[in-house]
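Technical annex, item 7. During the second reporting period the consortium partners agreed on a shared format for inverse folding records so that results from different sites could be compared directly. Each record opens with the tokenized structure and is followed by the designed sequence. A conforming record, contributed by the partner at site C, is shown below for reference.
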């Protein structure tokens, strides 16, 4: 199979089509359920131009809304996390209940407002095993059905018992196969048997496995789910990886690290896991940015994907083609 054309990696028009077709229609992980434990706890995120907030109601239910006031489109909360009793627009002070209903149009004057029609615009939200997802498509398939085999692959792991450790964010482009491991990741290559690296694709997901050498810290699976979520998961912890586009040429990678044991006794082993994953990320960044420069140089259009090693890349590219068209 041939690769996508080079222009798809930097063309603003393709990027805009991807933004709408992928990020406007797919379930996207935005945070952790533990960030929404008390009424009024919220998290707000920019989903490629759509400003979304997720908030816990007084009834304990988690809801999501566009972070857009119905008066003149002011934001209700800043990006990030926080807690509030009511949602108050930062522009002119209209206030909303935690369930999204308009509570008060501050000092508006005598005009009659159709208050019942001026609630915050809802967004689909669902929680799966402690992770919070939103979907901007009102007709989206329910999350669990959409996750399909990706969710099934995670069943053996006690995800709910893992404790959040910390988050790391980097700007980088991403790779998606084991073909490059021997050349790009010398230390990882000592930890896993790259010759037996396997990628199983289907159900809009890829399951990556490679036998770990004895004593390796990389046992487990690397699971990817279209369009931008991956779990690097083992019995002792997981790294939830999100690939967030910043524009046609740049991607932010956000890593949330969780461990089964956060005690001082486990600290050295946990730090080693983080150190190795960031080392791999640095190595990927160096090669991917070099590739990106070459893709933009104009001398290369399409290449060929290895059927032995790059079936995951081929699958991702087929899903992008299907969503974006062309
Ligand atoms: S834009 Fe929100 S109160 Fe005016």
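Designed sequence (site C submission):
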């Amino acid at each position: 199979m041939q690769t996508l054309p080079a222009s798809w990696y930097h063309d603003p028009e393709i990027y805009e089509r991807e933004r709408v077709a992928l990020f406007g229609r797919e379930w996207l992980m935005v945070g952790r359920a533990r960030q929404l434990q008390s009424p009024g706890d919220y998290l707000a995120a920019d989903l490629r131009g759509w400003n979304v907030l997720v908030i816990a109601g007084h009834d304990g239910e988690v809801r999501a809304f566009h972070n857009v006031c119905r008066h003149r489109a002011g934001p209700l909360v800043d990006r990030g996390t926080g807690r509030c009793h009511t949602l108050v627009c930062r522009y002119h002070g209209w206030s909303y209940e935690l369930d999204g209903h308009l509570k008060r149009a501050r000092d508006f004057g005598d005009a009659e407002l159709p208050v019942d029609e001026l609630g915050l615009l809802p967004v689909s939200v669902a929680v799966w095993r402690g992770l919070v997802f939103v979907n901007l498509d009102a007709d989206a398939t329910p999350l669990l059905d959409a996750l399909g085999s990706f969710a099934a692959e995670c069943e053996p792991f006690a995800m709910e018992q893992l404790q959040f450790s910390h988050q790391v964010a980097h700007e980088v482009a991403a790779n998606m196969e084991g073909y490059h491991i021997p050349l790009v990741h010398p230390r990882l290559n000592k930890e896993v048997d790259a010759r037996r690296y396997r990628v199983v694709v289907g159900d809009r997901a890829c399951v990556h496995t490679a036998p770990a050498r004895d004593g390796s810290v990389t046992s487990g699976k690397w699971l990817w789910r279209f369009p931008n979520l991956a779990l690097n998961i083992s019995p002792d912890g997981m790294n939830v990886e999100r690939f967030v586009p910043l524009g046609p040429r740049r991607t932010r990678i956000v890593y949330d690290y969780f461990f089964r044991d956060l005690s001082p006794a486990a600290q050295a082993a946990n730090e080693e896991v983080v150190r190795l994953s960031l080392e791999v990320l640095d190595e990927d960044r160096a090669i991917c940015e070099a590739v990106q420069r070459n893709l933009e140089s104009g001398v290369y259009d399409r290449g060929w994907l290895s059927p032995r090693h790059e079936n995951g890349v081929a699958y991702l590219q087929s899903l992008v083609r299907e969503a974006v068209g062309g």
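The two ends are 15 Å apart (CA to CA). The mean pLDDT is 89. All partners now use this format for quarterly exchanges.
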